Amino acid sequence: MTQEIPAIDLNKQHASIRAELDEAITRVLTKGTFILGGEVVSFENEFAEYCGIAHAIGVASGTDALQLALLACGIGTGDEVIAPSHTAVATVAAIEMTGAKPVLVDIELTRFGLDPEAVVAAITPQTRCILPVHLYGCPVDLNPILEIARAKNILVLEDCSQAHGASYHRRRVGGWGDIAAFSFYPTKNLGALGDGGAVVTNNPELAERVRLLRQYGWKERYISHIKGMNSRLDELQAAILRVKLRHLDAWNARRRELANLYLEMLSGADMALPVQPEDSEHIFHQFVIRHPKRDEFQAHLRAHGIHTLVHYPVPVHLQPAYANLTQMVGTLPKSERCAREVLSLPMYPELSEEEIRRVSQVILKFFN
Ligand SMILES: Cc1ncc(COP(=O)(O)O)c(C=O)c1O
User: Fold this and answer.
1) Is it the case that residue 39 has pLDDT exceeding 80?
2) Mean pLDDT, rounded, of the chain
3) CA of 234 to the centre of ligand 1 (A)
4) Considering only CA atoms, which residue is closest to atom 8 of ligand 1?
């Protein structure tokens, strides 16, 4: 029987760095500090340096990172935040949790990023923030969005949860807008062994507000200077992330290599393949193709032992919980089309070239 190819396999990654992970876990256990200690401070410094940004603040998840970034910017009830509907629901959940109104707009189909024209059309006097999401590891075309935001004095919050290490015009994402959020959910290009996230910014005041907000507004223990919450990154996750950060560039390079092999193998196939914009370095968090008969296509792959995923089957404005947005948003043709057509092929650094060839051959069979 042929070997199954999973959509993602973290065991292989962890086996390849097991000794380093064990050492990090033992170090934390021996030290006996579990919340906001030296590992978190070191990870924050190392991650900020990696991103080329002045400040990184470790928090409990990517969703919290988005929420805390918005709160630090003073965004809440009465404010509007422009975001894509074709994204992880977390992007929109975080906006709603601040009390602000998500204004969901359409995307363009090259990078799956916010469509600048749709952004302009959605601006009102209440718009306080534009929230581009670097989906699948492909940087959004930020320059037009930054131009719109600057002209209208609107903040830009980048959702970098799927784009650790991706760059736009040779500079890493996360430092282009006013503030940015990362998720370290285990399956991300940089993933913890549990939940985790970070807010990054070059603005010292915003950084300080995020630091206060993540722990009850404390500067010193038990004295709340502002109203905050508990959203801390723990020492164990920080220690794990420090290990994995050392491998991130090599892992991203390997993903790009594998993506190029897919692109070469599939160049003649009648489907929409991912694009690598010349101004950017795509880090292929996902390798996403589009096909009008996606479900049939997915079943064909599954019948040959190849597992795939759909990111995402329903755009946020059509989710049952967001009925409040459905009417307000109307139709978003490209986002709705993506939900019907996108398919994420197996993509992780530990895949072999032989496996990529096998997936590609099974795909090519679908067209014959
Ligand atoms: C684009 C995007 N934004 C936000 C999040 C939320 O991150 P988390 O799961 O760490 O809360 C994720 C990950 O699921 C994501 O992919």
Assistant:
1) yes
2) 97
3) 18
4) 62
Residues 103 and 85: their CA atoms lie apart, in Å, by 9
167-168 and 171-172: which strand pairing? antiparallel
> 254 CA distance to ligand 1 centroid (A)?
23
Per-residue pLDDT tens for 156-183?
A: 999 999 999 999 999 999 999 999 999 9
Please give the model's pTM, rounded to 2 decimal places: 0.98
**What are the chain's domains?**
10-104+113-242 (3.40.640.10), 248-366 (3.90.1150.10)
In this predicted structure, the answer to whether residue 330 has a pLDDT above a threshold of 90 is no
Distance CA 367, CA 365 (A): 5
**183 CA to middle of ligand 1, Å?**
5
Would you call 70 helix, strand, or coil by DSSP?
A: helix
d(CA 87, ligand 1 centre) in Å: 9
Judge if the beta carbon of residue 231 lies within 6 A of ligand 1. no
% of the chain at pLDDT higher than 70: 100
**pLDDT surpassing 90 at residue 84:** yes
Task: Using alpha carbons only, give the angle 149, 150, 151 rounded to the nearest 5 degrees.
Answer: 95
For 200, phi then psi, to 5°, come to -125, 145
Residue 90 near ligand 1, beta carbon < 6 Å: yes
Q: Is the pLDDT of residue 327 over 90?
A: no
Q: Is the CB–ligand 1 distance for residue 63 below 6 Å?
A: yes
Instruction: Please work out whether the CB of residue 159 comes within 6 Å of at least one atom of ligand 1.
Output: yes
- Whether residue 328 is predicted with pLDDT greater than 90 in this model: the reply is no
Regarding the beta carbon of 137 and ligand 1, being less than 6 Å apart is answered no
- Dist. CA 352 → ligand 1 center (Å): 27
Interior angle at CA 184, CA 257 and CA 198, nearest 5: 120
